[in-house]
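Blinded run. Sample ID left blank on purpose so nobody reads anything into the name before looking at the predicted structure. Input follows.
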Amino acid sequence: MSADRDLLVQVSRLYYELGETQNAVADRLGLTRPQVSRLLKRARAEGVVEIRIIDRDTAVSPAADELAARFSLDAVHLAPTPAGPEDLTRRIVGRLAAQVLRANVRDGGIVGIGDGASVAAVADALEDAVTPVRATVVPLAGGYWSTGPDRDPFRRIADAFGAQPHGLMAPGLLDDAQTKRALEGHAGVRAVIDLWGRLDVALFGIGGPSWGVTSLGADVAHELDDASAVGEILIAPFDIHGAFICPSLRERVLAFDARALRDVPVAVGVGAGERKVQPILGALRSGAVRTLVTDVATAEAVVAMDAA
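Blinded prediction complete.
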């Protein structure tokens, strides 16, 4: 075994088999945390590590391998497409995504959670861990808090793991850039932003066009229409080619920068249904998604659209 491959095996054993954090692996081997992150990505890419999700709802389709190859994804997990309303597909995909998330969360990890119907379905599907996981769970954007009986997705996911939630008490969409800069200077907000810089896992929904004049203002809404936006991740809209657009909106958003998701060791995008085909294709082309969880029919439609 070459010294290079031996290092990949060492890093992988410490992280995946012994459950060490990336920081602990770095300290033990005299590396930096970014070096460990890159080595773990290489280990998966070169077949040193194989992550398998065993679930009766997992389906097999050539579209999984096709998408993984076309977009250099770490993994594609497909649920069967049931007959019935779209909500049923979302629930089945959510259950599969919950298995993917559980396979990647470990002690000492920092886990970022998005919002939306797909992520809520993941939270619904997670059963409480038999042994609590000493991880930290944070929202990936502002605006997630509730005074009612329904807890925010990131808190419900933290509860299921027995992990520590770290909230962000600020809106996700702000009136102007000046307000954003002021909030970023607040100690509580700054603490969450610092955690974003150390994410081990990010799970987020791939959304379709859901913006309007009321929420964004006429100028931004028209800018998105003119740029032919097809979807969004973490309040970051993109076009069908995968380009993140509308920088004027980005200056008003308090959220993890979707463009940086490609640097997160495990970045899981979740979405399913006919209305999500264009958004998923744009998201894959953006490079933000490293692991995709969807259903067979949606995956096959994305493959067909990309080929066309």
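Unblinding after everyone has recorded impressions. The beta strands are 75-79, 110-113, 136-139, 164-165, 201-205, 229-233, 236-239, 266-270, 291-295.
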